[in-house]
Amino acid sequence: MGIELRHFAALAAVAEERSFRRAADRLGYAQSAISRQIAYLEQLTGERLIERSQGPKPVELTEAGELLLNHANEILATIEAAKADIGDLQGGRSGDVRVGFFAGVPTRILAPALVAFGRRHPGVRVASRETVTDTPLLELVRKGSIDLALAHLPIEPGPFEACRLMSVPWVLLVPAGAPIARSAHPPTVAQIGQLPLIASQSRKVEPWMVGVQAAELGEPRIVFRSDSPQTVQALVGAGVGAAVVPRLAVTEADPRITAIDLSEVLAAASIGAVWLRESEPCGAVGQFLELLLEICAILERKHAPPEPALAGRG
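User: That's the sequence. What structure does it adopt?
Assistant: Structure tokens below.
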């Protein structure tokens, strides 16, 4: 229809100031510009909107002018509310955050993050997706189904960006009382390869094996496969086999198992946040990523030295 917000602003200013000159001064226009904007509205509606006066008498809105002003005020208020909502969205005070994670270490990261983020940003909704491993998460990121994925680094080539959240040492889970747990030194890679191992069901290569010399490891003897950290730990406790897992994936104070620190044997697992390169985290997503970095820094400092319960022998 050709109506612009400046036309409504002019009508509102004239109604409040009851003067074309004062309305023009208030809006920073020439008085003739205010007159043209009011004339345009009158031409468009086919009604006289303002009772012009001669001399110092203030101008008044007609009944049609008052009616149009009511609608104009609603529109202007809606625009202001929209600007405020957009400001909240850009500032991370509203919106949605969609994050994907796999069972194990990310569970220990995500739980405190959700609690803290809910307190800081009550207007933001966080939706989470859990998968058994991190492999499907990258496809969800690629499709735009989630904003962030927590995954092992390095990630596969693709349209992704990633940042490191934390490093987590590996431990060897063995049944409590196993002879290997009584050794004064951690087992070598060759010794680990000779154990009956519980491995991932969906991975072709275990993350802890990346960078390990094949000749040193040999042909691992896999006796069971599972992607569930709880199942793996239960199987180790039952004596089915041993497993190499990140320290933070271990349920502590389990008398059935002993966790042997492998910091001297294997490079630590690196956990990171991944997003689409074309969708740099901002707003609520950026705020959530910043919080993840804070929490991971705390966890990393807390678990830097081997925990007594995990470093015990026998």
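The chain has three domains: 5-90, 95-167+269-306, 170-266.
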